[in-house]
TrEMBL record:
Record-annotated Thiolase C-terminal domain positions: 261-410
SUPFAM superfamilies the UniProt entry points to: Thiolase-like
Pfam families (alphabetical): Thiolase_C_1 (PF22691)
Organism: Streptomyces longisporoflavus
Protein name: Thiolase C-terminal domain-containing protein
InterPro entries noted in UniProt: Thiolase, Thiolase-like, Thiolase_C_2
Amino acid sequence: MPTKPTPPSHSAPVAPVGTGAAVGRARKVAVVGISLSDCGRVDEATPYALHAQAARRALADSGLGRDVIDGIASAGLGTLAPIEVAEYLGLRPRWVDSTSVGGATWEVMATHAADAIAAGRANAVLLVYGSTARADIKAGRRTSNLSFGARGPLQFEVPYGHSLISKYAMAARRHMHEYGTTLEQLASVAVQARANAATNPDAMYRTPITVDEVLGGPMIADPFTKLHCCIRSDGGCAVLLAAEEYVADCASTPVWVLGTGEHVSHTTMSQWQDFTVSPAAVSGRLAFERAGVGPGDVDVAQLYDAFTYMTLVTLEDLGFCAKGEGGAFVEKGRLLRDGELPTNTDGGGLSAQHPGMRGLFLLVEAVRQLRGEAGDGRQVRKAGGRLPEVAVASGTGGWFCSSGTVVLGRG
């Protein structure tokens, strides 16, 4: 593996648009700013305030002025997202994206934003998210819901009480049936996530847990007990992507977008051909092919983990192990910060934060690790103390309905 991955060039010619668009080639794209808002238990802030807080912090992290932002991507808030968020932030973007595909939203949006910047349609795109999901339930402003809706294709499942979590649980049971995956192996995913969270000051839960504690918890949807499921938190984050010519003016170390991929699978469970294969099998392959690297080149992985099974099957589908071998792969401590494949190094949605569509948090943590900014006890190091060079962030949406995968490299 090269010591410094080179951002891929693109052959498609583009016309100059705005500042710095190059004629005859597409531009390279870097992550130049990242940040979290206040996270965990945030009882007083509104979702809009968390958006603004995260955006200000990410812009400060980049060292750029707000006038460079000419694109915004946001989903999940407002009647006309992302227009309301842009107005709240005082932005008048010429490029917007409101794609909403569940937890994969942010990796899919990053794909669209990187393509737009590379083609010269935007110069700097802000991806921003904020949610008070935990506080809203505590305050009675919202309640838990059984399903996402009862119209369209979902009308054939909702009458039978087929909730989101039960769909994931059913898929997990199928994997157990097909490949002999055990409850203990699934539980080890939660144990390792909590171990990674232990050194993350931003993590909501940091106390170590054991496999027995995971298995002995209250049943939510067979085979998932409570600790197999993500936490519910408040919080937000932001990521600023910019064209290569802005990098010299940035205060932060650039992290290059090497390759991306997106894919959708199904919405009705009867149309899902194989419960043991997620759409990451396609989005991951595309992202690696476009990046010119493979799973063996990845130093750190950030994977959507609303449930333990999601981590396991995504590892398989991205090619870190063969189909059906995910259980054996995760049970050997490979996901720990000092393991063979450090995964969800902030503690993931199982222990750190999960305010809803968590995919943007994956990108923030991947960038932190590549920059070497994760902090004492959490920073991943390669042999000789070297920083990681390649990271992958893969988000999953719905009930394995969608996937977006982004491969990042340190510059």
